[in-house]
Amino acid sequence: MTVYTDWSGRIREVSREAAAYLEVSAKTAVGREFPLFFAADRLTVVTAMHATTGGFGTPFTAVLLTGKGRKRKVRVEIDRHGTDVLEWILHPLVTSG
User: Fold this and answer.
1) What pLDDT score was predicted for residue 60?
2) Residues 74, 44: Cα–Cα separation, whole Å
3) What Rg do the C-alpha atoms of the chain give, in angstroms?
């Protein structure tokens, strides 16, 4: 599942799979601030974005808040994609319970 943002985190493009996981349409996702989808610890998200723009992306685990208010745990990788785009790769984490 992939989300593409500018370096400030504004969504430019989202895969169909990622939009469904976030419970939003791909059309309505474009233009929204992707860091606001994270339920907590947004400092980690912003720090990872900043490190990636400098060429030092580090994967992290986070909780996403979907468009319907559901929390979903994911492993996130951020990579530079071109000169001014970040590619976010989301890996859902299944919790047992």
Assistant:
1) 94
2) 14
3) 12
**Total number of domains constituting the chain:** 1
Provide the CATH number for the domain around residue 81.
3.30.450.20
- Residue ranges with strand state E in 1-97: 2-6, 11-14, 60-65, 71-80, 85-92
User: Could you tell me the mean pLDDT of each successive run of 10 residues in the chain, 97 residues long?
Assistant: 95 97 95 94 89 86 94 95 92 77
What backbone phi and psi angles, to 5 degrees, belong to 59?
Answer: -65, 150
Q: In this structure, is residue 97 part of a structural domain?
A: no
Structural domain range at position 34: 2-92
State pTM to two decimals. 0.90
Is 17 inside any structural domain?
yes
Q: Buried b / exposed e across 34-59, counting CB within 10 Å, b at 16+?
A: bbebbbeeeebbeebbeebeeeebee
Give the tokens for residue 84. 């001014």
Asked whether residue 14 is domain-assigned, the answer is yes
